[in-house]
Amino acid sequence: MSGQERKFDTKLLHFGTEVDEATGASSVPIYQASTFHHHDIFNPPVHDYSRSGNPTRQALEDYIAVLEGGVRGFAYSTGMSAISSTFMLLSAGDHIIVTEDVYGGTYRLLTTILSRMNIETTFVDMTDLDAVKAALKPNTKAVYMETPSNPTLKITDIGAVAEWAKEKGLLSIVDNTFMTPYYQRPLELGVDIVLHSATKFLGGHSDVLAGLAVAGSEELAKQLKYLQNGLGTVLGAQDSWLLMRGMKTLAARMAHSEISARKLADWLSSRDDIGAVYYPGLPEHPGREVQEKQSTGYGAVVSFDVGSGERAKQLLSRVKLPLVAVSLGAVESILSYPAMMSHASMPAEVRAERGITDGLLRFSVGLEDIDDLIADLEQALQNS
Ligand SMILES: *Cc1c(COP(=O)(O)O)cnc(C)c1O
Questions:
Q1: Do both 230 and 282 map to the same domain?
Q2: How far is the CA of 161 from the centre of ligand 1 (A)?
Q3: What is its cofactor (predicted)?
């Protein structure tokens, strides 16, 4: 049976390099070495310096390429490192169209760093294909999607945007952090490059920072390889190993957390002291149909509005189970406060425009018993 015919859950455990060739060890060895001896100066080793290539990192890069169905994978020190390295495909004078409720760090990179390099961005509501088309300029080179978006979980039709991008000769990029390849594989929908903050669901244990990219073509793979080596934005061997350790349980973690997230979203929707509840699995979610077309699930992140900043802060100080923290996608539940955490770098007016109100909270559902998580939220809500 070839790797291609295997189901996703099987590929998570049997990705090709999971057993050490030399010793049969049950996990990839950690090659903690910066450089490699040339036994024969006329016949250099496969890896000669760990920035350019390291066997542990290579195993991870092959692993994510298999999972996303791409040509080649790349591992970076953080998600932002994967994103910024990929943006280096652009040149001064280029223009890029980006999801308006993009991750806060990506927003900061585009508006305060790449802008200095004369790379121009237009932020659009990507749920509206006409708005995307209207943003096209003569110097547009790329379209950058994030779906579901953060924190209001808006859904972009990946296939439709990718098709239009192809027609116009633009590069299409998806930040697939929220869904992971377990639920959504953008390359199969026609996208050119997939990116991840592997710090989140792929790592899954709040113990490693990492970023991943997968190229859908040999040509792009060559360019990304050149940039990764040239910029030096690589992931270290220890962290590469730790990330693979976490990724093996991705299916089990995602499936469990999603069942709980659905229950949490239903429970929140049934309460009259909660305003908007954002979860693509809710029947009234405007993006539900598109989500079901392009993904096999809804994910484990639920956002909801408790009405005011005062009430949000009270709830945050009263919950006992979730981590109150930035980040998401871990074995433990994480409750975030976008207005003061992930989106603090966004000007208040821009935040308001994008529905990131002072009462908005984002719950990343972990592996605790959902009844305990709901009981904990209930006591925190009752007292606030
Ligand atoms: C966290 C996150 C990032 C940034 O990743 P880091 O690993 O923190 O650098 C990018 N995109 C999304 C959607 C994220 O959630």
A1: no
A2: 22
A3: pyridoxal 5'-phosphate
